[in-house]
């Protein structure tokens, strides 16, 4: 196959095309008051297949994120309407939207997997919002040309998990795709057992993945690769355009954003579970929530994905896996970068940004406003102590907010079976914090150590109730997890230790 010439793939002018004007006028007539711009579509048909979502029978609301609807500037009460229910299940097209499934490839579990693509996610298009342009995507909206053996659907269980977790991550201040709502249908979906269908409406400035770049690189389509990189630079990394090597600068900027995201994951104890290159966002957003888990007891080697037999994506391997994925991105971008050294240099930034960002996060968790010699040792000491005592990660940090050298030891000490080791650690911590104003430290710690995270058992309880059409726990969890650093009187139970049965929850890739 001869690669198309540059002229066939000239960078579209995103704001002047007739398509833009056409969609805008159509959108203004729409009930939601949406202004569609659909810039991804302007990349051209090599990047996607246009198609419509496939309807589901008798949809109902499972969860609605009204706060996000307000942030997006959606018309007041639109999310209460039957038009929204139909549109966000994929049963009715919003005027101005231009639905498509994008094509990408990727490395899965370390192996080149070839073409993947949006097998069940359909991009409705992109809208102007007070948050800036945002893409709206329906996950579980039916088969696409990239569905391979899949049915194009998502089940209620995994949709609730994605909905709640993306909002929990946002509440924690961690970059992520967002979720506007989940709708359900009693249509049967076959997984290990029969389940019912659901659709999550996700939003993000872009859903472009490392795998989009790998796709055109492996197919030897340099013009498309360049068009994609130019699109991403112009829209999301405009400073890279000013660099001597814009594409190396892009690789460096993505490496830095990814490093920052990884530090945030590690600090909060988040395990993603499937860090394949098709699940890595070019914007450094947490994307594609599957078998994720927030750590209960601190176990550095914890594997949250039942299907990950080798532990490739174990908690303590995540930062290295992100770096591995960045290498794949670098490899894919090589045709656009003058020499290999520039690409390697761009990737190097990960090695400085990640440890710095992790240190900063851990210092904040410890309530240390400034950096001092010995902090790295104190942080490592803390991790070792938590691991050897298998201490509940979230509860430890939240209780530590009330620790002072004079008092508050008992609540924290109670979490350890090796009290001697704890006392030795508490002594060095007390020395380190001796000069810090207690109120200042407590304030920093309460903003850095969440009281509430989406533990597996909490999601599981909400899912079991939702299967019986009781969606109240989805609502409650959403509200609490959106402000996880606050106290939520009456919901302390959501901040407790996991029950014994939580250890037997097995979450696999099946979703
Ligand atoms: P994931 O593991 O969810 O990131 O999915 C990996 C690839 O499989 C992506 O290309 C998905 O679109 C596709 N996929 C996953 N589940 C399904 C499904 N039920 N139907 C069609 N494609 C799917
Ligand atoms: Mg995926």
Give an overview of the whole structure.
The protein has helices spanning 18-28, 66-71, 82-87, 156-171, 210-218, 222-236, 238-241, 246-268, 318-333, 340-366, 375-389, 393-400, 409-413, 419-433, 438-448, 456-467, 472-482; strands at residues 48-50, 60-64, 100-102, 105-108, 111-115, 121-127, 134-139, 154-155, 178-190, 194-204, 270-271, 293-294. The longest helix is centred in the last third of the chain and has 27 residues, at 340-366. α4 (156-171) crosses α16 (456-467), α5 runs antiparallel to α6 (222-236) and α9 (318-333) packs antiparallel against α10. It contains 17 helices and 12 strands. Strands 2, 6, 7, 8, 9 and 10 form a 6-stranded antiparallel sheet that branches. Strands 1-3 form a two-stranded antiparallel ribbon. It is α+β, with helices and mostly antiparallel strands. The site of magnesium ion has 3 residues, from loops.
Mean pLDDT: 93
Query: What is the helix tally?
Result: 17
Low-confidence spans: 1-30
Mind summarizing the main beta sheet? 6 strands, antiparallel
Order of helices and strands: HEEHHEEEEEEHEEHHHHEEHHHHHHHHH
The hetero compounds bound to this protein are:
adenosine monophosphate, magnesium ion
Beta strands, count:
12
Our Rg estimate from Cα atoms comes to 23 Å
Structural class, from secondary structure content? alpha+beta
> What's the overall geometry?
globular
In percent, how much strand structure appears in the residues?
Answer: 5-15%
